[in-house]
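REQUEST ID: PR-0412
SUBMITTED BY: lab tech R.K.
PRIORITY: routine
TASK: structure prediction, single protein chain
INPUT:
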Amino acid sequence: MNHEKSFRLFSHIFALVLVAAILSTTTSCVSLQKQPISSTISTQMLSTNELIKTADQAWFKKDYIASELYYTRLLERTDVPKRIILPALERLSVSSYKSGHYHEAKARLEQWKQQSPEALSSEVWQKCYFDSLFAIKNFSTLRTHLAGTMENGALPWDIRSQAGKNLSSLDHNEESLAALERLYSIAPNDDDRKELESWFIASLGSKSDQELKNNSELISGGNNLKFPYELILFEKAIRQSSAQEYWPMAWRTMSGIVHRGQIVDKHLFNKIISTLEAKYGIPRVGIALVLPISGRFQDYGWKIIRGAGAAQWELTKAGLDVDVQVINTEEAGWVERVQNLPPWYTVLGGPINVKAFKELEQSETYAEKVTFSFLAKPGNLEEGKQAWRFFSSPEDQIRASLDLAINDLGITDFAVLYPQEKFGRQMSKIFWNMAKSRGAKITGMESYPPNDFPKWGKVVGKLVKAPEKKAENEADGLDEDAPLTETDFGAVFIPDTWRQAQLLIPHFFFHEADTLVFLGPELWSQALNSARDVEAHNLKLTVAPGAWWSASEGAVRLKEVMNREGLGTPDFWVALGYDFIKFSSKLGTFSPGWTPEIVNERIADAQHIDFSLAPIHWDADGKANQKLFLFRPERNGKTRIDASIVKSTLANAKNRRARRIKAWDETQAKLNDKNGAETKPQ
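STATUS: complete
OUTPUT:
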């Protein structure tokens, strides 16, 4: 039979069959096994060799409906040469997919893999399997397959890389970016990592601004200098570059990523930056620090300047022109000096004392300069709209303590013991409100005269209800040395100085309240920085929040910078200056008429820095939240603690109390037995 005529004849017959199938089917794809008998008879008229040639003709003509039929019939035969089977399975799989028979394509692909495990190394197999599962929306199986393929070290890297890319494309969430992060980490060499960088930055270019914004919201200070997160920030900076006021911030972001990020192909990304520099120039950023560099608080001011100087030098080495101007808030006319700064000084940090901030507030300079207060509260200004905070707040301090007590220790009942003065009353009120909002109870509250030490013991006794407990023991006929019942709260908040707290806490032990967690303000951890010969034995359940921990990763990096530049040992105030310059340099300059919305948008990007202090996060409304460290006293200072340490210490305290009560009970039992024996008639 003439093969060309045969092919036309069978194609015509199959077309009629296909029309009939479409008219009779309303749901999923029809299995080719159920075609009308006429098409089966037609293929049976051909020898195996003729059927091979006919199937190949349809394949090369891209007549996938016909080739699907012919390869199906071919593989049903038992005399097909072995060398033909795998190519036929490959073409049948592709033909089924191209014909819209996705379930059939998946089945044929699995048959191909069963016949030859090497199918997994085929780009054709991988692509068709991905497309088929995607078409039938079998995403669970697809994710499992792609993850396994990406991790399969026996497969060629091109196959594994494409699997990782496909896995990241299924969703636009943390998992997709985590897949790319993993793919990058297992890439065999730098050339492969360069290819991933080039591919990803190109793919980001096709995303909409909203998609890019959604991705950037998944970035934190812990991953902002890692692939792929760093390239999301890089692409966002590229898009911001066209706006003059954004250019300094964008340049700073891109340069920082190239210098300190994971990027391997630095040439590619430096070339992007160079192109933008040729268009917009190398930016200049001006930052003003308003600090006391004379008078009572000058030591703090000079420390901040040291940290700021270290950060400025680091930025200069990275190529960023950052001007830092320090203005002494102790000199007359300092506010006017702020107002007369050159126009590129649009960001202001400080002051560190309330009096100076009130002067700034009254002058309304905050309306011209984007102001970040180094205070717990930006005066009477509205945070996130009129001024911003670069400092921990009372809420930050109390939140850290409540997170530990409620979330980690399971404590829901609290007491408050506060001094009768402004700070104590304010902090107590904030603690009360925050504890209540989280479902906790305040079961005890007392105040004490801060300078009348003799009265403190009685106040503490009243708080722990010692008189009532003793009366109950007496009513039960127990001796004076009988143990008192535990308090009806698990932790007590004492918003006072560390010096005062050291004198107050022993009174709790005197009244046998020895299983309490003592929560304090940041004042405690600040004082403990320089404390010596602390009687720490009864203070192991004392917890204080703080923003500076010299052994944190950020603090260690700052120490290295300070040592390298010969600037001495850093502390909280040095770190404050260092972090602020690093952060504010990423904000860029602000044009006249800036709005809070613009500032908050820039903060959202700039906050992704490696803080040497406890990290600060600003929400969309510009309100700051600092995630403080927690500490407890040691003989010569303090040590950082976590929930596991406090849990263990609290459990030990409860066990000691239980042993003490058990020992008392046993002693009483012996005494009762002895007394009983003595009174027994002889």
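NOTES: Residues 1-41 have pLDDT under 50 and may be disordered.
REVIEWED BY: pending
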